[in-house]
Amino acid sequence: MASGIVNIRRDVDDKFYRYRMPLLTTKIEGKGNGIKTVIPNMADVARALSRPAPYPTKFFGCELGAQTTFDEKNERFIVNGAHDANRLRELLDVFIDKFVLCRSCKNPETELIIIKQGRNEDIIRDCKACGERTGVDMRHKLVPFILKNPPVKMKKGKKKDVSGAADGVGGAANASPEDGAEENDGNESDDYLTKKIKAEAAELNDKPTLTDEDWSADTSPEAVKARIKALEGSMAATVLGGDDDGSDDDANSPYSVLGRWIDEEKDDVEDPKAFSIAIFKKAEELGIGKKHKTITVIAQALFTDDMVNEINQYGALLQKMVTSEKHQKALLGGIERHVGLAHAELIPAVPKILMALYQIDVLEEEVVTQWGTHVSKKYTDKETSKKVRKASEPFLKWLAEADDDDEEEDDDE
After folding, report:
1. Who's near 184: CB < 8 A, 6+ residues apart?
2. Of the chain's two ends, which shows fewer C-beta atoms within 10 Å, N or C?
3. Model confidence band, residue 269 (pLDDT cutoffs 50, 70, 90)
4. Does domain 177-412 have CATH number 3.90.550.10?
């Protein structure tokens, strides 16, 4: 797990858990009676939780018996007094349990809704994962604050500008998530990056290959017995439904087993081709060789901060396992998690990463264009999704220009 990123449910010890947030940080300012605890990244934490930042800040005040102040415009959130960071993180876990997690399925993908019943008002957690609506403890001191400051209802159905100006998708690779609604004035930078992409594309033309014999499974009695055992162990996760059946928070799911195995083995790899074959056979043994979610786990666990070069090294594995549009989308989701959550320093390299995948015929133009122009919170929080997809703009521009060139050549003929 990357430094500074933790699971929203910190009782889930699984680095492939879908729901992540920044680790809460604190800064003590002032002296004497004027001492206070500033929470510099409260806005980022709150965005990951899909809650207004004043809510957890005020919750801290309620629990600690301290006054709180917040300036949302400047993202400055303060709890009076000197408070240890670990103590506030523990309280944040309590806030998440009481006001974020679905009481039924313990999924954090909920929305707070205020329901009026005569003169009374109730606060409900509406879960987008399981569909259940569960109440909060209306006796808590935070409840009156929420009722006086109700959450803003998210507008749905608003048509998004394909260029991304309306929702933060597109723009320069180093743009911040907050400037997504502003006009992009970085055209020169984009043109420069596009030229670099064209120049570097030639370096990625060697497509990795392995023979069918390389991929064939070991048919010895011992290997067959091991595969049967692995299949029995993963039956609950693979037979009861598809790839998305709640295995994100199951540390014993075949996906988590595969991810941990890759993570443990990759540091000792001397031959990427041999390791590619080993990964393929391991996935087959776990009964998830053809599942599209397996590609998400591989993308998240296999690559490091040298991802651009590693894509070519493991290209044969990707070519073997990415066999449908769903697999391509799962691969892009794994890249979102790897780049957005674990290796933020790779965000400017997203165009190169996409180009490397495109050059080995793993990504199709329509799929990556659709992905790059539509923000989603399926694999990460929405803000992280915006950052990663925004960084893809130079590559999408290159694709569009390449199409225009092709059309002009057809017209000339």
Report:
1. 165, 170, 171, 172, 175, 190
2. C
3. confident
4. no
